[in-house]
Design goal:
7 helices, about 40% helix, about 10% strand
């Protein structure tokens, strides 16, 4: 990635899971708990780091195999949704210093995520961060917008901000998200690890 010229930056588009909240382990643990409850054998070599930014159906295909997952998909999804409710019912703190950062920056902001808008808004409200984001600047690539690594979410987010892409900084934590930003011709990308 080339160097970022911060003086030209007028907006930041954040990924959500893994950038604002460290929730990737929660998604992964819900998947593992679901498979254990259903007594399904899965690939124990796969870790949550192997699934960062990947949609849940693909995570299950990695953990099981595609045929096995498709045979049991309905049961798995029922148990998985219950496990997600348990995991996300607890208070989840955003990354340290994020609140201070959001308070101090005087830039437009948006979120582009493969997560559902309901999930994003709930966590933002519960952590008192919702005030930093306009509701219409929260882009969920889970229904009508193609999910990452497709560029659609970032194209849509940039259009919402009304800025040239050269004036936007994307903060991402996954290769899938970085690929999506690059495909959208956004060159200012900061990898959050």
């Amino acid at each position: 990635m080339r160097s970022i010229k911060f003086k030209n930056i007028k907006a930041i588009i954040f990924d959500f899971d893994g950038v604002i909240f460290d929730t990737e382990p929660l998604w992964f643990n819900a998947a593992i708990s679901s498979l254990k409850k259903l007594e399904l054998e899965f690939d124990k070599k796969i870790t949550y780091k192997d699934t960062i930014g990947i949609e849940s159906n693909i995570v299950f295909e990695k953990l099981l195999d595609k045929k096995k997952y498709l045979l049991k998909k309905k049961k798995i999804n029922i148990v998985y949704n219950n496990e997600l409710k348990l995991n996300f019912s607890k208070k989840i703190k955003p990354f340290q210093y994020l609140n201070i950062f959001l308070k101090k920056i005087n830039l437009k902001r948006a979120i582009v995520s493969n997560s559902s808008k309901k999930h994003i808004v709930n966590l933002l409200i519960n952590s008192n961060l919702y005030k930093y984001f306009q509701d219409n600047n929260i882009v969920s690539c889970s229904n009508q917008i193609k999910s990452k690594p497709e560029p659609d979410g970032y194209n849509f987010g940039a259009a919402l901000l009304g800025l040239q892409k050269s004036n936007i900084l994307v903060i991402e934590d996954s290769e899938i998200g970085i690929t999506a930003a690059k495909k959208a011709n956004i060159s200012n990308i900061l990898r959050f690890t």
